[in-house]
Structure to design on (163 residues):
């Protein structure tokens, strides 16, 4: 039972009210907005990602597509992902040596460390090839967010029904 407190020009009713609000009618819009946001983030990162032959970008894009709509996006997928994203030359903590090259075709190669190597970053920055992506940089999510972040938010609000 509620309690009523009377004052000279007003009364206060102190009671318990339980309200259940269902947002299920918005669920589809929210899912679409999340799916769209995840895709937009991935697309925005591509111009800032390292691109030699497209394999790294394609692998990262495929991994992100597999989880699109979950609110997660792979910025850098695969064994080379952290190495490239951090933008620092990595060396084997035990040997102090960098990766060795394995030829994958004419004028193409991959970098590999010895099996079981624990990698540590040096202070030396990686030098990215700018042939395909002139805006390539490390931490490319940050660059994409700075360039397109406001547009991401605007699109999410439009799809989700927000103002």
């Amino acid at each position: 039972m509620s309690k009523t407190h009377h004052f000279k020009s007003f009364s206060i009713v102190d009671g318990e009210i339980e309200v259940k609000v269902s947002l299920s009618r918005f669920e589809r819009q929210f899912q679409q907005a999340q799916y769209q946001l995840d895709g937009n983030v991935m697309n925005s990162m591509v111009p800032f990602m390292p691109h030699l032959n497209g394999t790294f970008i394609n692998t990262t894009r495929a991994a992100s597509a597999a989880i699109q709509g979950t609110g997660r996006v792979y910025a850098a997928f695969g064994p080379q992902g952290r190495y490239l994203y951090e933008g620092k030359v990595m060396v084997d903590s035990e040997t102090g040596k960098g990766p060795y090259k394995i030829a994958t075709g004419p004028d193409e190669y991959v970098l590999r460390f010895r099996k079981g190597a624990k990698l540590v970053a040096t202070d030396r920055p990686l030098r990215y090839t700018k042939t395909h992506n002139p805006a390539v940089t490390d931490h490319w999510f940050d660059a994409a967010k700075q360039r397109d972040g406001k547009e991401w938010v605007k699109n999410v609000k439009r799809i989700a029904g927000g103002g």
Notes: The beta strands are 3-6, 11-14, 88-92, 100-105, 108-112, 119-125. Residues 48 and 137 are 6 Å apart (CA to CA). The chain has two domains: 23-71+128-163, 88-125. Helices lie at 27-45, 55-66, 81-86, 140-160.
